[in-house]
């Protein structure tokens, strides 16, 4: 069962159930946690805690983006269990997250919450060109896709200068290659530039990655 949960709803209605479930705790995950991986989540009950007899819903919430909705990843744990293995959604962005133990009858109320921990999401990194770069020359653009990042395709642009110019350098795919020879247009004015990897399949032109600035010298 999957649903979205407003983090504001959860936070605003927490006080009463925190008082009710003082002996219930979800242990904060440790180590390097990556989107898409399986993760064991553990918890403890006080012998007299009412949660032990009720069960609960385990949900994952972002603390990095307050507008981000939560993801209900397991439903209805029954009495007696102290752990479960969950799969972290593969498309989660890098950020800070918490696990909440929610009331099965009212997902706006939670029994327990972990401390914040980091999940590393899919990432594309563009390497910043180095050395002397002259307009008109061939340039080796390189990149690295980590944590399951896939962009098939992405568009590579050269952006910068004064006045600003935007030059399309080509379309590439992370599941096919990790580098490409591109040509800096011969009429590119001298100035500071970046390479930017842009999602061509989104009207908002999502920016996948951007290099640090580097200098291009006029031909």
Structural description of this entry:
Residues 1-23 form the signal peptide. Keywords: Signal. Pfam families: Kre9_KNH. The protein is mainly β. It folds into two domains: 19-119, Immunoglobulin-like; 123-217, Sandwich (Immunoglobulin-like). Helices cover 7% and strands 48% of the residues. The protein contains three helices and 19 strands. It has helices spanning 7-12, 15-20, 51-54, and strands at 4-5, 25-26, 33-34, 38-44, 56-62, 70-77, 83-87, 95-103, 106-113, 117-120, 123-126, 133-134, 138-146, 154-160, 165-172, 179-183, 191-198, 207-210, 214-217. The strands form four sheets. Strands 1, 3, 5, 6, 8, 9 and 10 form a seven-stranded mixed sheet that branches. The model is unreliable at 1-21 (pLDDT under 50).
Please specify the SSE layout and strand pairing.
Elements: E1 4-5, H1 7-12, H2 15-20, E2 25-26, E3 33-34, E4 38-44, H3 51-54, E5 56-62, E6 70-77, E7 83-87, E8 95-103, E9 106-113, E10 117-120, E11 123-126, E12 133-134, E13 138-146, E14 154-160, E15 165-172, E16 179-183, E17 191-198, E18 207-210, E19 214-217
Parallel strand pairs: 3-10, 12-19
Antiparallel strand pairs: 1-6, 2-4, 4-7, 5-6, 5-8, 8-9, 8-10, 11-13, 13-16, 14-15, 14-17, 17-18, 17-19
Span between termini = 60 Å
Uncertain stretches of 5 or more adjacent residues:
1-21
| Topology, number of strands | 19
Q: Which structural class best describes the helix and strand composition?
A: mainly beta
Please state the CA-atom Rg, rounded to the nearest Å: 24 Å
Give the biggest beta sheet.
Answer: 7 strands, mixed
The proportion of residues forming helix, as a percent range, comes to: under 10%
**CATH overall fold name of the largest domain:** Immunoglobulin-like
Sequence of secondary-structure elements: EHHEEEHEEEEEEEEEEEEEEE
* Relative strand content: over 45%
Query: How many helices does DSSP assign?
Result: 3
The coarse overall form would be elongated
Please identify the top-level CATH class of the largest domain.
Mainly Beta
Mean pLDDT over the residues: 80
Q: What's the architecture of the largest domain, going by CATH?
A: Sandwich
Domain Yeast cell wall synthesis Kre9/Knh1-like N-terminal: 132-216
Organism: Gymnopus androsaceus JB14
Keywords: Signal
Pfam families: Kre9_KNH
